[in-house]
Design goal:
The complex is a heterodimer. Helix content of chain A is 76%, strand content 0%. Chain A is mainly α. Chain B is built from 17 helices and 6 strands.
Chain lengths: 97, 459
């Protein structure tokens, strides 16, 4: 893709995300942050292609390491977010209602 | 796979991520939203494997499997009070991956100036966010001192690092001495991140973590530009925006300005960090109510409307269960109980809500500052558990102090304020709490776990 288009994607995505996220109540800010944390681990896409494309053994190891680290980020982030949100959810109809 | 098909898939997955996010704005749909985002990411991985025809590369699956196992284990084991360091730690790993990808991109042959520039920038932002996050996680986990650590000529050192990041970045873009520039860039960035966070104190962590979230997004987006991945740019752009938004909210709640934070003035200059000590015996015998003040239990028995203000001190004393017991006793008496949550209560945005929900306190009894502040005057009693600066009336009138102008929970407007704090020490900002001296304040000093339990038992 042309560099300008790539920069443009960033310029469009960031304010759009900002707009949507501004509706999240402060009650959910911790799960929001851990969810965003998981999403930032999407750079696993880059790690996968870089690792696969690497020819030298050293680069291959670095790439594999990047995949492991990014995957910890993604998996840990999403599952911890789910754990927190399920705590919130089962309150409905619980003791306080 | 044709380019068009790939770009359409990227667009759809980006929409999936945005849909997941918009579902996150309601508690009822939030869990579904998280699953939608998670599914979008999984599909993105498959799409990438197919597009680059690397489906048969066994190493990738091995590495993903290892990462998945470690990530899930961490997520299942972490305690809710340790969530801030967990998030900071995961940030650190994620941006380390960004930096590694940047290194691999920069060492591959035949690059354009744009790729070299974005690669260098991704390396810099990724590396500095890596050390920053790890230092933040270390401080939160108490592996590193909580107090701000300021080296002699700290500012000058930061400036040197900044220069050593920018100059190699220029050389990289021009394609001069690529390997050496990369190395200098990497080391200077790691140093910059270290210097940046080492001087941040414990109570400023909510701002720092939000800022790191923002940086992680920016690092990822730039890495996405260097490897020509539109989906990565979109997703990381959203992450960056979210971090920025949360940083702004935290700044407002702590009365700091974002430019100040970026310039490194994250900490209150020279303030003693008087956080409530953890589980140590109270210095003085927890004193009962002063003779001219009513018995707090008596007061609570007669109360119709009680607002509880929990602070990080409650979490440190691990008094959540006791607070819940108090709530249940009060409710059994027919008293209306609500919780007032200050935006910076805890060590990351929204942390206090999670801590209270963990002990099954219903989330519809948790109220934000704006929602509940007007109700203190009409309530009967405000109970403060381990909160200090956020209820200090000095924020309204003591011009020149670090908390002046900071939005506070107006516990002083309630007819009675029962304070279950550890001692009379000023809070983190170092400003004596004038609430303690008000005639309608009842101090129950000591370990909140005991004082709150006693209060609940007396009902």
């Amino acid at each position: 893709m042309h560099p300008l288009i790539l920069v443009l994607i960033f310029i469009v995505a960031a304010p759009l995300g900002y707009k949507i996220i501004s509706h999240v109540p402060s009650l959910l800010h911790t799960p929001l942050m851990s969810g965003m944390n998981a999403l930032s681990g999407l750079n696993i896409l880059g790690a996968l292609t870089a690792c696969a494309a690497a020819a030298a053994t050293g680069s291959r190891i670095l790439g594999g390491l990047a995949v492991v680290l990014a995957m910890i980020n993604v998996a840990g982030g999403f599952s911890v977010t789910q754990r927190m949100l399920s705590m919130f959810r089962h309150k409905q109809g619980g003791a306080g209602q | 796979m044709s380019d068009l098909f790939y770009y359409i898939c990227c667009g759809l997955l980006a929409l999936g991520i945005l849909l997941g996010l918009s579902l996150l704005s309601k508690v009822k749909t939030a869990a579904t939203g998280n699953l939608v985002s998670c599914l979008s990411c999984a599909l993105a991985v498959i799409l990438t494997l197919v597009r680059y025809e690397i489906l048969s590369d066994g190493l990738l699956y091995l590495c993903m499997g290892i990462g998945l196992a470690i990530g899930m284990t961490l997520a299942l084991r972490v305690k809710m009070i340790a969530m801030p360091q967990m998030v900071a730690f995961l940030h650190g790993l994620g941006v380390a991956a960004s930096a590694l990808v940047a290194i691999l991109v920069l060492t591959s042959p035949s690059l354009t100036a744009f790729t070299r520039f974005t690669g260098g920038l991704a390396l810099a932002v990724g590396s500095l966010t890596f050390t920053s996050s790890m230092v933040a996680a270390g401080k939160l986990q108490r592996l590193l001192p909580q107090k701000p650590l300021i080296l002699p000529s700290h500012k000058a050192l930061l400036n040197v690092c900044a220069a050593l990041i920018l100059l190699p970045l220029l050389l990289l873009t021009l394609g001069i001495a690529v390997k050496a520039s990369m190395l200098v860039n990497l080391i200077a960035s790691l140093g910059f991140g270290l210097l940046f966070t080492i001087r941040v104190g414990g109570a400023d962590m909510p701002i720092t973590i939000s800022l790191l979230n923002c940086f992680a997004g920016v690092a990822g987006a730039i890495a996405g530009m260097s490897i020509d991945d539109p989906l990565l740019i979109a997703a990381e752009g959203i992450v960056g925006a979210s971090g920025l938004l949360l940083t702004q909210i935290m700044c407002r709640a702590m009365n700091r300005s974002l430019p100040d934070i970026l310039m490194g003035r994250t900490s209150v200059a020279g303030a003693p960090s008087a956080v409530v000590p953890e589980n140590t015996a109270p210095a003085a015998e927890p004193d009962a109510a002063a003779p001219d003040r009513p018995d707090p239990a008596e007061l609570l028995r007669g109360a119709k409307d009680v607002i509880i203000i929990p602070g990080y001190g409650m979490a440190l004393a691990q008094a959540q269960e006791q607070v819940k017991a108090l709530m249940e006793k009060l409710e059994a008496n027919g008293t209306k109980v609500r919780f007032a949550i200050h935006p910076v209560a805890g060590r990351m945005p929204g942390h206090m809500n999670v801590l209270l929900c963990e002990v099954d306190i219903p989330y519809d009894q948790l109220f934000e500052l704006d929602e509940i502040n007007a109700d203190f005057a009409s309530s009967d009693v405000a109970i403060i558990v381990g909160a200090n600066d956020v209820v200090n009336p000095a924020a309204r009138h003591a011009a020149g102090t670090p908390i002046y102008g900071m939005p506070i929970l107006q516990a002083d407007q309630a007819p009675w304020a029962v304070v279950c704090n550890f001692d009379r020490q000023p809070g983190y900002a170092g400003v004596p709490n004038t609430l303690y001296d008000e005639p309608h304040t009842i101090l129950l000093l000591g370990d909140a776990k005991e004082t709150v339990q006693r209060l609940a038992d007396a009902l």
